Amino acid sequence: MERLFSEAAERGSRYLTEAARRRVAPRPEDVAKLEDLGGPLPQNPSDPTAVIAMLDDLGSRATMASTSGRYFGFVTGGALPVTLAANWLAGAWDQNAGLHATSPLGAKIEEIAAQWLCEIFGLPDTCGVGFTTGATMANFTCLAAARHALLKRAGWNVEDDGLFGAPPLTVVVGAEVHVSLLKALSMLGLGRARVITVPADEQGRMKPAHLPALNERTIVCMQAGNVNTGAFDPAAEICARAQQAGAWVHVDGAFGLWAAAAPHRSYLLKGICEADSWGTDCHKWLNVPYDCGVAFVRDAQSLRDAMIISAAYLHTGNKREPAHYSPEASRRARGVEVWAAIRSLGRSGLAELIERNCQLAKRFAQGLRQSGFNVLNDVVLNQVLVSFGSPETTRRVIADVQSEGTCWCGGTEWHGHTAMRISVSCWATTEEDVEASLAAIVRIARRVSISQSPG
Ligand SMILES: *Cc1c(COP(=O)(O)O)cnc(C)c1O
């Protein structure tokens, strides 16, 4: 066993060293070779060491090197080395973190991580906190608590009686709502098309003057961190309006909530702690390995009422049971890597990580503007949108940047423009990474512009 594990660890660390230097997207021929992982169903056992060797030999080269400092796709973050090491140890523990009885360690470390997270985000330490797979499920979990609370007030028990015949709830979202929040609404029976959509401004922020009349059966879903621009819905105004009406405010803060950790960015979140629930991801900006989201609900009882399970064999004492705060029962101990990240970074290290990423996004914007390209958003956080001219030119630049391999950026549509989307959210990204990536993008964009210009 020791040989197996030390070899896996060796292969893993070799991978990380190489991923930091190699091209970011895998070569198409290495992706094609993944077919060799298949073949007929194995009929007989193989040597575990050979299995790991095969996985590394075929798999590693076909990965997207998203742990590298030159990956700027989506908003993903990498994995701080200490969190990966903690993850390996936690893998060895193989704890079922659903119950205190099955993992006192899993339950305790989540409680500690939850307290620390509340303090980082400036949320009440009495919040109910649930660990989920990601922000989709964190939003789902928070909205289940909202659904419970609002219907309970109306005299309806949604967990017992479902939604058929229930008093209707109104859900309000911004025009720039994330698709995964709509998915959460669809899974909760609240309907993704049944929402009232509030128009957004040129940065994608909800316009509070356009909020509909709110009441005690309304859930307002606002966003902290737009996936294109990084912009924040104005929390102070939205929360004040909602509080007067007795409405519930939920915040999708998948990555934007982390701005609270950086003193120079926290102005973006003004008023956010007046909301009722908040969903975020740790696998994005905290840079822990997949997968880890967190749901925070001010009224912990509503979260418990929405999530609690009971059976004689699950009979528990008065300790916090992780499974009473999130949808899953059996699951991995997600608190471990969160604990390791915060223990290792400390408040100042986390602030430095977030701020450095934001500064590097600014550097991208500045370099692209200086080269004559059109940056489409106010770079207030870690997101940069850039157009290289016509939609075809921009799409061509994105495709060529991805295949050239120095860095990896995705594409998007923003208010009628086709744009390249740059997200700086990895702990590993350095100034050198940004300069090398900028140089590659500018070089490719100039070449594409020349080849596409008439004559
Ligand atoms: C990433 C993201 C989500 C979904 O998060 P997952 O972890 O992929 O489930 C939701 N909302 C926003 C704003 C996001 O950036």
Protein topology:
Elements: H1 2-21, H2 28-32, H3 48-59, H4 81-93, H5 104-121, E1 128-132, H6 135-153, H7 158-161, E2 170-174, H8 179-187, E3 196-198, E4 218-223, H9 235-245, E5 248-252, E6 277-281, E7 293-297, H10 300-307, H11 335-370, E8 374-375, E9 383-387, H12 391-404, E10 410-414, E11 417-423, H13 431-452
The structure holds pyridoxal-5'-phosphate.
Give structural attributes.
single chain; 455 residues; alpha/beta; Aspartate Aminotransferase, domain 2; Aspartate Aminotransferase, domain 1; 3 domains; 7-stranded mixed sheet; 4-stranded antiparallel sheet; 13 helices; 12% strand; globular; binds pyridoxal-5'-phosphate
Question: Explain this structure to me?
Answer:
- The chain has helices spanning 2-21, 28-32, 48-59, 81-93, 104-121, 135-153, 158-161, 179-187, 235-245, 300-307, 335-370, 391-404, 431-452; strands at residues 128-132, 170-174, 196-198, 218-223, 248-252, 277-281, 293-297, 374-375, 383-387, 410-414, 417-423.
- The protein has 455 residues and is α/β, with parallel strands linked by helices.
- It folds into 3 domains: 2-62; 86-341, 3-Layer(aba) Sandwich (Aspartate Aminotransferase, domain 2); 351-451, Alpha-Beta Complex (Aspartate Aminotransferase, domain 1).
- Helix 8 links the parallel strand 2 (170-174) and strand 3.
